[in-house]
Amino acid sequence: MPLLTAEKLSVLRGDRALLRDFDLQLQPGELLHLRGANGVGKTSLLETLAGLRHAGGGQVRYEREDARPHWLGHRNGLNLQLSAIENLQFWCGINAAPMSAIGPALDRVELPARARRRSCRMLSAGQKRRTALARLLLQRRALWLLDEPLDGLDVAGLARFADLVGEHLQDGGAVLMTSHQPLPAPLAARELAL
Ligand SMILES: Nc1ncnc2c1ncn2[C@@H]1O[C@H](COP(=O)(O)OP(=O)(O)OP(=O)(O)O)[C@@H](O)[C@H]1O
């Protein structure tokens, strides 16, 4: 059974339809790499699939109860006044996720200890991205919708990202992500060009 189905979806931006009658299925264990030129509508599509933007028509279905997606936008969704740990504590608080998951998640994304308690405005782009990626590990959600998750990551960061995604797919999760860059090895993705 697919984790995500979109049928005859219209993606709007203002009063303009960027996509019409768009169909998509995402199966457990599948990584889908959404590609396309700047401005073609990748972010708008992802936001529509995540329920952050009204569709102009058609429907989006999450087929399983635990398929409520993890969303990672390219702005990271961090409060820059707060530290990495405080941001994750806030996220755990509003999502009923265990605070005990925060340390291990930051270990997995290899955010240095000295960076964890600094306000996020003091972090580099890659450190902020790693903090945002750590959210994916705080609560099990089968579907990950990731907009430009590779931006700002160095070579080690790309390798950690590949580890996280690879494990998630093996556990039966699915990932839909945009990227202008090739995906890090050994991730094998189905490609969809808009
Ligand atoms: N606030 C806005 N109001 C109306 N149209 C917008 C707005 N923001 C963006 N757009 C238009 O929506 C279209 C799709 O933008 P979107 O960000 O989804 O593209 P994208 O494929 O993700 O681009 P990129 O590769 O540059 O990230 C663009 O052509 C853009 O001009």
TrEMBL record:
Regions annotated as coiled coil: none
Occurrences of domain ABC transporter (ranges): 4-192
Keywords: ATP-binding, Cytochrome c-type biogenesis, Membrane, Nucleotide-binding, Translocase, Transport
GO biological process, one term: cytochrome complex assembly
MF GO annotations: ATP binding; ATP hydrolysis activity; transmembrane transporter activity
Alphabetical list of InterPro entries matching this protein: ABC_transporter-like_ATP-bd, ABC_transptr_haem_export_CcmA, P-loop_NTPase
SUPFAM superfamilies linked to this entry: P-loop containing nucleoside triphosphate hydrolases
One Pfam entry name: ABC_tran
Name of this chain's protein: Heme ABC exporter ATP-binding protein CcmA
Organism: Solimonas marina
